Backbone:
């Protein structure tokens, strides 16, 4: 709770609006205001603790009872009253603390204003005495609350820690291992930075990216805290030596390096001591996560080596604190196990919901030919705000008309290297040389590229720490003024895409730069710097740019192409709106193109998991009926309540009309049933009886394409239907549990669907069933509304009805697809691909 940051001077109306937004009931608020007056902190305090002692918490689901909701919905962009992360996470959302033993507690805390010192003491009293160093500056009298408030205020300018930060700090005080799961931008870094300020010991932080370590060290130095980072490149013995001698309060180390530094770290643990090992972005530990880094997995050495049973000088094990914003339940379990975290690990879990992020999905070809349509609005926005700002941007307009000179591929080599030139010209000049190196559709597979040209660095505390001004309450800025400003990050899948799109945006007058792992490190570093000092409007990047980046005013995250997982998507989207103000996260996805996995070495098990993640992501994009924020947090195991976010495209537009898929579903399942030779009790659906003569008649295995081709051939009313439409139906039936994938490794689109028992029951009972009503997904809607065929298979289907064409095609003479020589896939047919399919057959036989 930000006590005092919103003072008593704001009107009662404002306080009421804010607290309604947070989810409190109107009656409660007005009762509290009647007692304590119109101060938000006092009102919350009263509602949580004051009236009858009963704690009440706002439920996320009830967050949207604000009376002005309809006005906001009508004009969400203009007069939207922006909610802030600080409001929702610091004050409103209690964090759940769960020990691995199962103990759960919920807390609402503001150390400086409303915390109950006895409650805090209760946590301490269960633990051993405080470390000596914690007592040093307080004349033997330990005042944890006051001390935390003091360092927080002194170094960071914040008045209080958030609930989940306090939980994590409590775990550290109790010397317990701790897993912190909190939304992007919620402030996880403070959980491990504050301990460094409360003891004479050192905090060691394991972090996956040099750029991330660099940014954090730079900020810490500005806040008067000495720090250094040790990357994986050429070691600098001077910085490393100083770090291992305890000269910096916080030492950031990449996982590869920490494994090399085990012996020096043991000495450091002896003197001056290691207060904590923090493992940031800990989802990188898990093979089931989206950013698996094998070296993260070896970090179990920390628990194994830095315990009192191994190091006799230690009075207790050095606590581990693992932190992430994107870990599913499966990944969380894997983290605890892989890092060998203690049985008593405290799990601090807060909401993953980001109330100020507005999610939208749009259909697009996501190719260079669609830039014009898709980026028109973005270009217009920046150019309009530049014109509005007038003079300040003149220098850029002078450059832009020579449009060649502002694009990557057409800069003049002879341009002077004058130091005084404007930054975006410098970036473009540098980038020009990169174009040739980025012409392939290569992919950046891991965000974990060491994207800086330095492998270590030291950051001494500045003598006059810079105190960041506390965030400006959102009602004090006009949303229409602030929304359009602030930078944009566009994520594209390929390196070539970064250069092409950045080039296009530059030509359209924007200050844009490309960023991918193949570019020279000097360029990457420059883009980082330009981005952070607001010299760039748009960074077009692969996944190499993202994790942990903490720039407060990013207003838009655009994904131009489907990410590989919802974890990656939410992680990247989490770069937006870290100041708590309304920000847009737009995903452009080609609904009719089947997404594919990035080339990568994977075991079968990992491939299966990777396809599952990609499928979940595709289904998110195709969804037309469930709030997007709801799907996203559900993915991380959280329920958002019935109302949803009320901001995403689905909440705003509402679901499409339901469609009765009964007839088509019966036909489809019946054909599949015949393919697999499954018997159905009492099947009497006349229109499809003709397919029941056994699968040998038209296919040897359940096969989606064969089934659809067969339906189009046999039932004239379906001859014009598109494959995309049937894929949509298959998704619905799979969701309902009527069909399942028979292949060992399910892909994004079902390939070998076989009816389940429930599907067969539907088939036998369906003449009496009322209907099979479902929302068509986005691809199905396209197929229903688009008069043109979406997939080339529609044409294939049309021709298929002609016996002669069919004969020719089966003979491979006029095959629709001419496969490259050496291509692994076999042409579709009824007697081919035996090896590949026999595995499926035997699996489906086993199941039966
Ligand atoms: N108690 C607090 N009060 C106000 N602001 C805070 C507080 N704690 C952290 N912040 C601010 O929140 C912002 C985000 O913090 P941080 O980078 O630690 O987020 P994060 O949770 O690590 O996000 P990510 O998962 O994206 O890395 C920072 O700019 C920080 O200053
Ligand atoms: Mg972080």
Residues:
């Amino acid at each position: 709770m930000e006590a005092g940051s919103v003072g008593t001077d704001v009107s009662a109306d404002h306080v009421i609006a804010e607290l309604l937004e947070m989810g409190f009931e109107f009656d409660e608020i007005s009762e509290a205001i009647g007692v304590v007056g119109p101060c938000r902190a006092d009102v919350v305090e009263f509602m949580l603790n004051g009236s009858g002692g009963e704690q009440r918490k706002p439920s996320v689901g009830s967050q949207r009872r604000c009376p002005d909701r309809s006005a906001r919905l009508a004009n969400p962009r203009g007069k939207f009253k922006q909610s802030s992360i600080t409001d929702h996470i610091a004050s409103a959302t209690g964090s759940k603390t769960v020990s691995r033993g199962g103990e759960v507690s919920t807390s609402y805390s503001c150390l400086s204003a409303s915390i109950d010192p006895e409650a805090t003491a209760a946590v301490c009293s269960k633990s051993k005495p405080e470390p000596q160093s914690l007592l040093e500056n307080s004349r033997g009298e330990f005042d944890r609350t006051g001390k935390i408030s003091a360092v927080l205020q002194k170094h960071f300018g914040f008045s209080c820690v958030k609930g989940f930060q306090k939980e994590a700090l409590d775990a550290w005080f109790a010397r317990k291992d701790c897993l912190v799961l909190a939304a992007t931008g919620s402030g996880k870094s403070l959980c491990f930075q504050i301990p460094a300020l409360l003891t004479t010991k050192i905090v060691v932080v394991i972090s996956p990216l040099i750029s991330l370590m660099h940014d954090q060290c730079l900020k810490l130095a500005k806040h008067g805290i000495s720090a250094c980072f040790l990357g994986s490149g050429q070691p600098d013995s001077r910085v490393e030596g100083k770090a291992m001698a305890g000269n910096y309060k916080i030492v950031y180390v990449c996982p590869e390096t920490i494994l090399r530094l085990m012996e020096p770290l043991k000495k450091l643990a002896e003197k001056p001591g290691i207060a904590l090992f923090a493992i940031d972005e800990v989802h990188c530990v898990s093979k089931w996560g989206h950013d698996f880094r094998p070296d993260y997995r070896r970090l179990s050495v920390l628990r194994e080596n830095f315990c009192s049973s191994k190091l006799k000088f230690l009075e207790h094990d050095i606590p581990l604190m693992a932190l992430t914003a994107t870990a599913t339940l499966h990944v969380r379990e894997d983290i605890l196990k892989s890092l060998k975290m203690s049985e008593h690990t405290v799990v601090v879990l807060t909401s993953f919901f980001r109330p100020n992020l507005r999610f939208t999905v749009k259909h697009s070809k996501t190719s260079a030919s669609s830039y014009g349509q898709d980026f028109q609005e973005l270009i217009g926005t920046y150019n309009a705000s530049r014109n509005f700002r007038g003079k300040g941007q003149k220098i850029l307009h002078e450059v832009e008309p020579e449009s060649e000179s502002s694009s990557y591929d057409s800069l003049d080599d002879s341009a002077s290297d004058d130091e005084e030139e404007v930054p975006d010209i410098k970036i473009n000049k540098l980038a020009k040389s990169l174009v040739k190196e980025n012409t392939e559709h290569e992919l950046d597979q891991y965000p974990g590229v060491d994207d800086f040209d330095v492998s270590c660095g030291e950051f001494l505390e500045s003598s006059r720490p810079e105190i960041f001004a506390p965030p400006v309450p959102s009602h004090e800025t006009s949303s229409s003024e602030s929304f359009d400003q602030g930078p944009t990050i566009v994520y594209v899948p390929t390196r070539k895409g970064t250069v092409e799109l950045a080039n296009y945006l530059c030509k359209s007058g924007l200050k844009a730069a490309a960023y991918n792992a193949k570019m020279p490190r000097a360029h990457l570093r420059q883009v980082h710097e330009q981005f952070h000092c607001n010299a760039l409007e748009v960074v077009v990047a692969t996944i190499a740019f993202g994790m942990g980046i903490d720039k407060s005013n990013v207003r838009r995250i655009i994904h131009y192409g489907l990410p590989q997982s919802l974890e990656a998507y939410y992680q990247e989207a989490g770069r937006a709106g870290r100041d708590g103000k309304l920000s847009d996260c737009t995903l452009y996805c080609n609904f009719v193109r089947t997404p594919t996995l990035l080339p990568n070495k994977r075991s079968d098990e990992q491939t299966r998991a990777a396809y599952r993640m990609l499928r979940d992501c595709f289904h998110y994009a195709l969804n037309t009926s469930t709030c997007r924020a709801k799907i996203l947090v559900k993915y991380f195991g959280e329920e958002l309540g019935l109302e949803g976010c009320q901001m995403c495209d689905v909440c705003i537009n509402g679901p499409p009309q339901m469609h009765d898929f009964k007839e088509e579903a019966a036909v489809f399942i019946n054909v599949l049933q015949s393919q697999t030779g499954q018997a159905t009790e009492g099947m009497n659906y006349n229109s499809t009886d003709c397919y029941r003569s056994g699968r040998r008649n038209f296919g040897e295995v359940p096969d989606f394409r064969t089934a659809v081709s067969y339906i189009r051939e046999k039932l004239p009313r379906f001859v014009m239907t598109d494959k995309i439409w049937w894929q949509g139906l298959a998704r619905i039936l799979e969701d309902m549990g009527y069909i399942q994938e028979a292949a060992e490794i399910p892909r994004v689109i079902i390939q070998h669907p076989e009816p389940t028992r429930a599907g067969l029951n539907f088939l036998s009972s369906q003449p009496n069933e009322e209907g099979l009503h479902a929302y068509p997904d986005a691809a199905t809607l396209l197929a229903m509304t688009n008069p043109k065929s979406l997939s080339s298979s529609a044409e294939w289907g049309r021709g298929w009805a002609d016996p002669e064409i069919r004969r020719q095609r089966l003979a491979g003479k006029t095959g629709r697809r001419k496969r490259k020589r050496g291509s692994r896939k076999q042409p579709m047919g009824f007697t081919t691909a035996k090896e590949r399919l026999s595995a499926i057959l035997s699996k489906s036989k086993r199941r039966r």
Observations:
- Residues 821 and 827 are 12 Å apart (CA to CA).
